[in-house]
Amino acid sequence: MDPNIAVAAQRIATQAHQGQFRRGGTVPYIEHPKAVVSRVGNGVEEQVVAWLHDVLEDCEVTAEQLREAGIPEHCIEAVELLSKPENCDYEDYLERVAQNPLATKVKIADMISNLADNPTNKQLKKYAKGLSRLTRDL
């Protein structure tokens, strides 16, 4: 896969998350996808999905716009799986993610990143449950 696709994904994520901040309100949101990218390794497709993992759920970006930008379809599918539908139960969401190895790898990196960012007790329990499910079949 062309490494420039990861650069395009980074550009899309940076633009999409412009003006957004993490929980504390001071850290630019793009630092989170950057942290997830740092945890998925050197694979281009993993990096693409890591940069984009929150853009469909949290921004005004559509899957069609990702296609138009040249993001490969299998990467878009993983990003769609990582975008939790509004009325979806967390366990059902994890089951959907677990069916896709690319989405699973990025979600694990996402959870680890969130755990490194001063999680609440509720978040600790949530991510422990999530990591247990997503690593069960590894």
Structural class: mainly alpha
CATH class: Mainly Alpha
Shape-level CATH architecture? Orthogonal Bundle
Overall pLDDT metric: 95
CATH superfamily: Hypothetical protein af1432
What's the CATH topology label? Hypothetical protein af1432
The helix-strand sequence is HHHHHHHHH
Total count of helical runs of at least 4 residues = 9
Q: Mind describing the biggest β-sheet? A: none
**What's the shape?**
globular
Our count of domains comes out at 1
Unreliable runs:
none
Binned, the helix content reads 55-70%
β-strand percent reads: under 5%
Distance between the termini: 25 Å
Strand elements, count: 0
Radius of gyration from the alpha-carbon trace, in angstroms: 14 Å
Give a nutshell description of this structure.
The protein has helices at 4-16, 31-39, 44-52, 55-58, 63-68, 73-82, 90-98, 101-115, 121-135. It is mainly alpha-helical and 138 residues long. The mean pLDDT is 95.
